[in-house]
């Protein structure tokens, strides 16, 4: 590996990648594969130098860099040497990188949602003719691009949008699906445990506003079918309505975004919600000394003789022969000898630890991404519906479908920006044709493609949503 200080940077275009975690695996490999033809030099930066070094694959067009993102001088020095910066940091850490990119006039790409702080930079970014591309991973990212392609096509033909529903989920592939929950962690476990918290899910259905508070979220599910993969369910994302203006769907009667799981997951997950185990707002006393059984018992009423198991069944209203009970037993939540081992932990953190024992991908396991869009529209007086579906299966525990679908669009967008193929400046997400057309076309080469079917539009079906 050639040290950064002896590379002739005048001959290379430097891309600084900040964050070398799981999400960066496919992203880095894509750019390494094109580094010679595109004259790219990749500076792979992470708080862990060892991790950054592993991701370089000892390729001559890469350099590993130990970078503490909170060290302002160190961060600024690294950004000054780049032509473009890719930030794969947690979403809340992008803003300081963005400010430095603005100061030193560098393009920037992230996979995260546009925060208010990031959006506030828009005028300055445009004034400096810079591109700050955000929301260009999977969800958000591929969902935006694939949806806008169909919506723009309908509008270009003179059609009127009536309905847009969009669903996405990171799941375990069928060949690796070997637990009763039909689920394993394919991404950050903490995000799974905290899903749906911090607000109310809101959407519009047949012109009526709908709101689902967190305690009810996992009992309001819509069923989906994907050919070759069977039946799925989806629960509502927090705020579907924020995309009405972004997508230009102010007149649509239905707008709904949801998260996909296998059928039965949401009902089982709701047990943890009702018990309070997903709460992250307080710390449990002596959490590191608790056994799994003691942790479970914290959320159950006192009884002088009843066992933890009996109290759990009474509290949740489930019988011993219920499949929900089997799911709890599989997670070993009643084990009296396994210790939590986490100091100053919240209930959500301990639940994450317990689930990670059972739901971590094995080295040979494969994950799977499922995305499903529904478009209802009227064209030439005829109402129709397009169902657009995408399934992507990972290669192994390292080159996962999640890393592929998050990382590849980021890498492709970065190269399109460097090559002058994306030119519109500003803080943005990938909803314009100059972005989504070349990206979707190239993603197909990696097996990320959508299958579309057209049927008569049926509108709202009250039987498809539980508790509606």
Percent range for helical residues? Answer: 25-40%
First-residue to last-residue Cα separation: 59 Å
Q: What is the arithmetic mean of pLDDT?
A: 92
User: How many strand elements?
Assistant: 16
Tell me the fraction of residues in β-strands, as a range: 15-25%
Low-confidence stretches: 1-7, 462-468
Q: Can you count the helices?
A: 17
What is Rg? Answer: 24 Å
What global shape is seen? globular
- Main sheet attributes: strand count, strand direction, barrel closure: 7 strands, parallel
Question: What is the SS-derived class?
Answer: alpha/beta
* Physical arrangement of strands within the biggest beta sheet: 3-2-1-4-5-6-15
Describe it.
The protein is built from 17 helices and 16 strands. It is an alpha/beta fold. The strands form 3 sheets. Strands 3-2-1-4-5-6-15 form a 7-stranded parallel sheet, with helices on both faces. α1 (25-33) packs across α16, α8 crosses α17 and α16 (401-418) crosses α17.
Summarize the structure.
The chain is an alpha/beta fold and 468 residues long.
Topology:
Blueprint: E1 13-18, H1 25-33, H2 35-38, E2 40-46, H3 49-56, E3 62-66, H4 72-80, E4 84-87, H5 94-103, E5 107-110, H6 116-119, H7 122-127, E6 131-133, H8 142-156, E7 160-172, H9 189-193, E8 201-205, E9 208-212, E10 221-226, E11 230-236, H10 243-247, E12 254-262, H11 265-275, H12 292-297, H13 308-316, H14 323-330, H15 347-359, E13 367-379, E14 382-393, H16 401-418, E15 426-428, H17 433-444, E16 451-456
Parallel strand pairs: 1-2, 1-4, 2-3, 4-5, 5-6, 6-15, 7-12
Antiparallel strand pairs: 7-13, 8-9, 10-11, 11-12, 13-14, 14-16
